[in-house]
Each structure stands twice: as C-alpha cells, then as structure tokens.
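Run log, item B.
One chain of 185 residues. Sequence copied directly from the ordering sheet:
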Amino acid sequence: MSIMSTPTGRIVPFAVFALTLCAVLASGLVAGGVVPSARAEGALSWSHYVVTRFGTEADIPSSFIAQDAPDAGDGRTFLSPDGSGEIRIYGSFNVLSDTMKAYQEEQLGYMQSAGFTLKRQQQGENWFVLAGVEGADVVYLFVKHGKECGPELMHHMRLKYPSSNMAEWKPIIARTIQSLSGPCP
C-alpha cells in the first residue's frame, strides 16, 4: 500500500488521499455548485489502457472513444461519448528537469502558455496535481513516477471537461487517478 503525508503531517493511504484530493479540487474549481450526475460510478464500465512505449497504464471509461495514437507512441487521447471532454494518458522522459518540482513548474508553464489558469496544485513525494480552468473547461493534470526509481520516467493523466459536467467527472477522476501507474525506466 502506498502512503503519503498530508500538509498537516497526517499519514494516509494514497488511495484515500487521492479521493479526498479529488473532492477538494472539484469543490473549489467551479462557482455555483455542481450539476447532478446521470451516471454514478457503479454505472460506468471500465477498460484498461497501457502505453506500450512507456508502460504507463490507467483505467478509462469503456464508453470513451480512443483517438488515433500519435506517431511517437507516447500515449492516447480518449473522447467522452458526447465529445465534450477528454482523457489523455501518456508517458514521457524527464529530459529537461532533474527534480519533481522542476518538472511540475515546467508542465505548469506549458499549460499556462496554452491559456490555463491555475486554481490548485499539490505535490507528494512522487506525484503532483495541477488543476484549473482553460476557458469554460476544467483541466486536471496528474503526474507520477515510480517511488523506487526517481523522476526519469513520468506517467501522466490529463483530463479536460466542461465545468458544467463536474458531477459526472468526479468518479472518472477518482478511478483514473487510482489506476494510473507505470514502471521504472
């Protein structure tokens, strides 16, 4: 079981922390409350996706539509059935940064140059989350690496969805975060 320390120093299992983090992030990203969901997590069926090149893997709702893989073979984008949201699962080598914090700052810079406004960020020993908005969409980036190997190979999950669909995406965020994993290089 993976554990981590909260900002208050409390040690919690990573899965519990991830689910709590999802709730905290979701509640602070959109003004005006949440829209009731027509789909509960129990109603979703899931598929497991693996990026062959990097070994990055995660669960994706089965109803999401896989887009063509990039020529580099570094991941894949999955569109929601109505096309309004997307999940990207991908891996990458950390070639420009030598620390997790530096990599986080690099990713934030890329996102801000594309119009992203940061609302929340959090970092653990081997992971970080950047959450915010891009226009009317919520954008959520979760990045981690294997604790035993350091930040040479990063495993990413990026979600983008309309802020009006917050309730529908909460179980998707929770499940995808829990399932994101990958090997050491």
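Observations after the first pass:
- The chain has one domain: 3-179.
- The first strand starts at residue 3 and ends at 5.
Flagged for discussion on Thursday.
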